Every structure is written in C-alpha cells, then in structure tokens.
C-alpha cells in the first residue's frame, strides 16, 4: 500500500517548522527519521494533510555538554548516539540502550526526538529518559517549555506535547562518579521491540546506595518508574542487597499486558528475572567505578 496524498513542507529552521505546523493545525504531523511514521502512513493506519519534514533543520542535530547534562538535539540520529565518544563516557546507558533499537539501518535514520515523541511503551529511549531524570525541551507558537520525562507520557504512544509543539532536545543529567547503569531486555528476535525491558541505575558512596533508579518498559501503557522501591534501596550496603529478592518484590507490583507477544504471567516472570540481572549489573559497574 501507499500513503494517502499529503502536502510536504521542508523548513530549514525551527521557527519555520513551528510556523508550518501551526498553519496546518492538527492535520499536520512532524516527520523525523520516518521509521515509525512512514509505516503507519503506508499501511494507512493514519493520514495527515501535511508532513513537516525536520530533516533539513540542521540546528536540531547536535550533542553537547551543558554543565552537568548532555543535551542532544531532537534530529540526532540513533547511530550518532551509538558512536559518540563523549556520550559513551558521560551517559553509557544511552549507548547500551541504543544498540538494542531495531537494526543498524533503522538507527541510521531513526532519531532521538522521534523515538521520545512517538512514545512506544516498549521503546528504549523513553525508558532511558525516565530512568535518568531527563528533561525534554519542546517549542510551539507560544514559545519553548521544558517537560520532565516523568510528565511526558500519558498513555500508549501518547504524550503531553500539544499538536502544534515540536520536541527540540533532550537533556540527560550526567550521574556522578560511582554510578552504574544496566539495560536488560527480552525480545522475540534480535532487533524487535522489547517484550519486557529494564533499566537500573545506582550510585554508591562508601559502599552504600545513595541514588537508585528503576524503569521498566513493555510492561504497561507507558514506561514506568518504581520510586517507592528505589527508596527502599537508599542507604543500603550494596553487599546486603539481594537482586533476586528485589526482582520478585518488584514483579508483584506489575500488571503487564496479556497480548499476542506474551501473557501477563510470562511478562511478570521475565520482569522479575531482568530486574535482578539489571540491578546486579548496575551495582557491579558502580562498585568498579568507585574502586577504579
Ligand atoms: C523494523 C523496526 C524495528 C524497530 N525496533 C525498535 C526497537 O527495538 N526499539 C525502539 O525504540 N524503536 C524501534 N523502532 C522504531 C525506531 O526507533 C524509530 O526510529 C522511532 O520510533 C521513531 O523515530 P523516527 O525518527 O524514525 O521518527 P518518525 O517515524 O519520523 O516519527 C515518529 C513519531 O514522532 C513524531 N515526531 C518525530 N520527531 C518529532 C519531534 N522532533 N517533535 C515532535 N514530534 C516528533 C512524528 O510526528 C511521529 O508521530 C523500530 C522500527 C522499525 C521499522
């Protein structure tokens, strides 16, 4: 099948893009890497009067350090994130997660902003943003605003962005030395979206956990944080933490979907195991960091 006809706009600046989007109202959609939007159009699951293509907006393609955050422009390709040496050192979890997205061809076109704005509940980047306490900058006719990752998703593939807003950047805080992250996921085939995925992050100070983050994806309508359980880790000696026990406790709080990919019971069992593995690996990395 082919997409239904649409008008095509190719702005070269963010302000032109905002004007284009506003002029078409809710009948327009932003086009980034096209790796999610184009299949939806080609299968005629959706149709829009106009596409506003961001691929010529060079000012949205950058990676830079700003104080204690790494700020990444929305049109930065996933392949760039995978290879960028500064990002690899500052936010290693981003690279680890990026390598689990689809295949190299998809990552060559797919963008950070496209994935975060699309908000697939089984996607890696929304969960990384949530786990690292990232902030998202968006701009619309009323000007720019910043959204906490925790406030971005309000349902499956649904965000708190307005129809006339464009996501321009994601700022990932650089966690302090002594921190470790790990990503674990189960997918039916390599490159598929996760059936269940987990991101765990911890910071150790004097062998005790001073910061913790746990985000799961593929287990609900949006990526999920488990702040109460994270709180129970704070202050604990890392040697006293039993990741298997922790995984079982967390899994009891899940009610994952029952669909063609996996049953609720299966996802729950897998989640318990992956939480244990991710927490164990994050603690291990943090411990190595503190001793290096
Ligand atoms: C075979 C295959 C396997 C895949 N596997 C995975 C996987 O394992 N994990 C994963 O996370 N993803 C996967 N993807 C999706 C891929 O990561 C996409 O690149 C991503 O979901 C969307 O990014 P994009 O740049 O292609 O956005 P597009 O497809 O261009 O846009 C997606 C949506 O976001 C909106 N949008 C895009 N950019 C902006 C912006 N700056 N501001 C506001 N709205 C915007 C668009 O309007 C559209 O609604 C897969 C895709 C394919 C085809």
Automatic annotation (TrEMBL):
It comes from Pseudonocardia oroxyli. Gene3D superfamilies: 3.30.465.10, CO dehydrogenase flavoprotein, C-terminal domain, Uridine Diphospho-n-acetylenolpyruvylglucosamine Reductase, domain 2. InterPro entries: CO_DH_flav_C, CO_DH_flav_C_dom_sf, Diverse_Substr_Oxidored, FAD-bd_PCMH, FAD-bd_PCMH-like_sf, FAD-bd_PCMH_sub1, FAD-bd_PCMH_sub2, Mopterin_DH_FAD-bd. Pfam families: CO_deh_flav_C, FAD_binding_5. Keywords: FAD, Flavoprotein, Oxidoreductase. GO terms for molecular function: FAD binding; oxidoreductase activity. This is Carbon-monoxide dehydrogenase medium subunit. Residues 1-177 form the FAD-binding PCMH-type domain. Signal peptide: none annotated. SMART domains: CO_deh_flav_C.
């Amino acid at each position: 099948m082919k997409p239904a006809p649409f008008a095509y706009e190719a702005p070269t600046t963010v302000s032109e893009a905002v004007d284009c989007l506003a002029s078409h109202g809710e009948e327009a959609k932003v086009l980034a890497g096209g790796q999610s939007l184009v299949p939806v159009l080609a299968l005629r699951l959706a149709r829009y009067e106009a596409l506003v293509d961001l691929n010529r907006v060079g000012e949205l393609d950058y990676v830079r350090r700003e104080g204690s955050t790494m700020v990444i422009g929305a049109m930065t390709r996933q392949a760039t994130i995978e290879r960028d040496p500064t990002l690899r050192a500052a936010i290693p979890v981003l690279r680890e997660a990026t390598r689990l997205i689809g295949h190299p061809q998809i990552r060559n076109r797919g963008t950070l902003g496209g994935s975060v704005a699309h908000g697939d509940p089984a996607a890696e980047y929304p969960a990384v943003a949530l786990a690292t306490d990232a902030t998202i900058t968006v701009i619309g006719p009323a000007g720019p605003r910043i959204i906490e990752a925790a406030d971005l998703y309000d349902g499956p593939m649904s965000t708190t962005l307005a129809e006339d807003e464009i996501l321009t950047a994601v700022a990932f805080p650089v966690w302090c030395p002594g921190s470790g992250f790990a990503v674990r996921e189960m997918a039916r085939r390599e490159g598929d979206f996760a059936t269940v995925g987990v991101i765990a992050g911890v910071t150790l100070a004097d062998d005790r956990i001073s910061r913790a983050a746990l985000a799961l994806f593929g287990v609900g309508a949006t990526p999920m944080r488990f702040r109460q359980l994270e709180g129970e880790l704070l202050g604990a000696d890392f040697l006293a933490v039993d990741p298997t026990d922790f995984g079982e406790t967390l899994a009891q709080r899940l009610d994952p979907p029952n669909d063609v990919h996996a049953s609720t019971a299966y996802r729950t069992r897998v989640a318990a195991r992956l939480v244990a593995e991710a927490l164990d690996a994050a603690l291990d990395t943090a411990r190595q960091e503190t001793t290096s």
